[in-house]
Write a structure and sequence with these properties.
Blueprint lengths: L1 H16 L15 H10 L6 E3 L15 E3 L1 E3 L5 H9 L32 H11 L3 E3 L13
Bound molecules: heme C.
Length: 149
């Protein structure tokens, strides 16, 4: 019974992936990391964010608390997630701080919108720069003792 449920769930999840809105087939050209760093600084991401190694470039804070980018994560941030975080920030709100500190009263992200000003080349470079800033941290499993009857 449990196996059957699993199969049905897997099928359901798989079918979601196939819809017209699915990220399947999403791919952008490779970006340039050094140029991405320039984009990161030019667009003043450090007015709201912190990033290891960029403490000195931090700008005057634009929101209540800095949102950390990069660092240890238990699940890798995919390319698609990072692109989405920049061009459609309200799609999924960061979880590093309580949501009230990251959104306005209507639940929209407080992140600045760059869609009218950032070129696609800038976006791909930016993401190429951001992605390696995230380090996958092994998930610490709870080791339950094994009992032998
Ligand atoms: C005015 C403030 C502001 C500016 C400027 C800003 N952001 Fe954000 N950003 C936020 C807030 C608030 C969040 C958390 C809410 C959300 O997930 O959208 C966020 C979230 C993110 C996330 C997702 C973080 C996570 O842990 O899921 C990424 C990636 C990101 N920003 C990148 C950038 C980049 C790159 C720039 C510069 C091009 C930038 N931001 C500029 C406010 C800002």
């Amino acid at each position: 019974m449990r196996v059957l449920m699993m199969l049905i769930l897997t099928a359901l999840l798989a079918s979601c992936e196939q819809g017209a809105d699915s990220p399947r087939g999403f791919s952008l050209p490779a970006g340039d990391v050094a140029k991405g760093e320039e984009v990161f600084l030019t667009y003043q991401c450090l007015a709201c964010h912190s990033l290891k190694g960029f403490e000195e470039q931090e700008l005057e804070l634009d929101i209540a608390k800095r949102v950390r980018l990069g660092g240890d994560v238990t699940r890798i941030k995919t390319y698609a997630e990072l692109v989405t975080a920049v061009i459609n920030p309200s799609h999924k709100i960061a979880t590093s701080l309580p949501a009230e500190q990251l959104t306005d009263s209507s639940g929209q992200s407080l992140m600045r919108n760059y869609n009218e000003v950032m070129t696609v080349a800038e976006l791909t470079d930016l993401v190429a720069f951001l992605q390696p800033q995230y380090q996958l941290k092994p998930f610490n499993r709870t080791n339950y003792p094994t009992y032998f009857p």
